Amino acid sequence: MPNAKVLESKKAVVESLTGKIQEASSVVFVDYKGITVAQDTELRKQFREAGVEYSVVKNTLTNFATKNAGYDFSEILNGTTAMASTTGDPIAPARIVCEFAKKNKLKTLTIKGGVVEGSVLSADQLNGFGELPSKNALVAQVLGTFLAPISSLACVIDQIRQQKEGGAPAAEA
What we know:
By secondary structure, the chain is of the alpha+beta class. 54% of the residues lie in helices and 15% in strands.
């Protein structure tokens, strides 16, 4: 039986993890075995730049925390486990892991599962997020789609104006 100090320390860790899981827009559990220190440092840098908190976690304590938060990940919390969580772009943790593993040809850096916007997702579902562009890129694509008809209309109006001013025939749009 652990002494009181150790037990209190573990309870504090579980409370902290529970809070992170509940507040996060997404949490991804990652099996990180087989990566080098240099690769881990680079991965952590990418997470920091994207506003993702990444840390190695103890499976038993994380299992208690996920259950406190209303989830059951006991099936996947084994072996080496790290937790990537964010309150920002919910796709970022999964996308960064997938892109990093692909870029570095790492078959051992894998997603175990996680939660996105309150929904439990499997590793396959989260790996699908790895193919999606970032939130900012998606917003830019949508805005580009909205602006395309306006740009075309502006071009047509400009051609009509030039035709009326110069008498030159306008090219058909």
